[in-house]
């Protein structure tokens, strides 16, 4: 049997493809013109009513063999592609994206530079509990050459009955210890109305995982110049994470650091699952510095060091972890904070791997 008819049919299809392409391109040019008109008039580019009218018209004229559902689907794809054409290319690239800025963002914290290739360690207690506790940790950080201290003063806790933090008193303690030992200090803020106040006490404001999509908080963080450490939400995709950072940057604060802190999966042997792949993806997609919180992602003291090494090997600009003078009596995260000798051992391991 000859396959001539098949070839003939295919030749005909090729011709129709060309006609379709020609018509689609003609349509696309018109859509671009409409886009220009809409821009001048300040009209919204997306017009669902117009789309519905066109789809209804098309379905009313449809004589098959495609069913109405398929006709709607095919044209909806054309409208979507058309809308993409109308949206400014500029707007498609986020400010936090590598496409917008090829060079790495570096953040100056006192004499410390974040994002210049030298890994930074952020360490300190989960919660600020007392002056004595914070000073004990600050002293060890100084001895170990760590220049950024963390400590929670406003604690977003799962249970309302758990310790909620010392609030402003906690920030004052952190500032006092940081000044005494010449450290930079980072602490979480949970309310938009506290952002301005926190800039008086801290060098970096943290926005925690539970608030990653608290858009009012993100906007408020964009109105100050104090650097922000934004943690990835426990169920946030990398795209959602970058959009959250975009809220801060687009509101005026370009000093943003990202922090992977583990995502929630079905795995029970770690507190969360450390998404190590997020590190190179974030570094490729964005110019912002990337940290990994090994304490919250793992919830396990015994694997902090290998996970920290993995984070740095994957390209992270630094690692965050919790250290407490006496973890067993800590008011939060008692199970996962390192005591001081373990922290010293951790630092020895990290230094060894950095020097190697
Ligand atoms: O008619 C318009 O207003 C257009 O912008 C064109 C068009 C289309 O492709 O047909 C594109 C996007 C809108 O959502 C609706 C329709």
From TrEMBL:
GO terms under biological process: aromatic amino acid family biosynthetic process; chorismate metabolic process
Keywords: Transferase
Record flagged with keyword Transferase: yes
InterPro entries: Aldolase_TIM (IPR013785), Chorismate_mutase_GmP-bac (IPR010954), Class-I_DAHP_synthase (IPR052899), CM_dom_sf (IPR036979), CM_II_prokaryot (IPR002701), DAHP1/KDSA (IPR006218), DAHP_syn_2 (IPR006268)
Pfam family, one: DAHP_synth_1
Location of the Chorismate mutase domain: 1-90
GO function term, MF aspect, one: chorismate mutase activity
Protein name in the entry: Bifunctional 3-deoxy-7-phosphoheptulonate synthase/chorismate mutase
């Amino acid at each position: 049997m000859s396959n001539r008819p098949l070839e003939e049919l295919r030749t005909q299809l090729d011709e129709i493809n060309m006609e379709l392409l020609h018509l689609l391109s003609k349509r696309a040019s018109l859509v671009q013109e409409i886009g220009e008109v809409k821009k001048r008039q300040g009209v919204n580019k997306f017009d669902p009513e117009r789309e519905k009218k066109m789809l209804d018209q098309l379905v009313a004229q449809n004589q098959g063999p495609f069913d109405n559902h398929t006709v709607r689907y095919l044209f909806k794809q054309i409208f979507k592609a058309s809308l993409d054409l109308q949206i400014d290319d500029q707007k498609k690239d986020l400010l936090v994206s590598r496409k917008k800025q090829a060079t790495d963002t570096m953040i100056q914290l006192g004499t410390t530079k974040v994002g210049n290739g030298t890994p930074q360690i952020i360490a300190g207690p989960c919660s600020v509990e007392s002056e004595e506790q914070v000073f004990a940790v600050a002293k060890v950080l100084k001895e170990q050459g760590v220049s950024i201290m963390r400590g929670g003063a406003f604690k977003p806790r799962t249970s309302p009955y758990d310790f909620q933090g010392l609030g402003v008193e906690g920030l004052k303690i952190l500032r006092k210890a940081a000044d005494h030992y010449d450290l930079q200090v980072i602490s979480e803020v949970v309310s938009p109305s506290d952002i301005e106040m926190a800039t008086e006490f801290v060098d970096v404001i943290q926005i925690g995982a539970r608030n990653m999509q608290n858009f009012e908080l993100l906007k408020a963080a964009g109105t100050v110049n104090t650097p922000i450490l934004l943690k990835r939400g426990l169920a946030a995709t990398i795209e959602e994470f970058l959009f959250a950072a975009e809220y801060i940057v687009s509101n005026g604060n370009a000093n943003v650091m990202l922090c992977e802190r583990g995502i929630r999966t079905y795995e029970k042997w770690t507190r969360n699952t450390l998404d190590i792949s997020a590190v190179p993806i974030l570094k490729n997609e964005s110019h912002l510095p990337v940290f990994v919180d090994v304490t919250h992602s793992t919830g396990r003291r015994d694997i902090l060091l290998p996970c920290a090494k993995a984070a740095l090997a994957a390209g992270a600009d630094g690692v965050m972890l919790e250290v407490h003078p006496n973890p067993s009596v800590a008011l939060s995260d008692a199970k996962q904070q390192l005591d001081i000798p373990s922290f010293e051992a951790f630092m020895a391991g990290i230094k060894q791997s950095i020097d190697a």
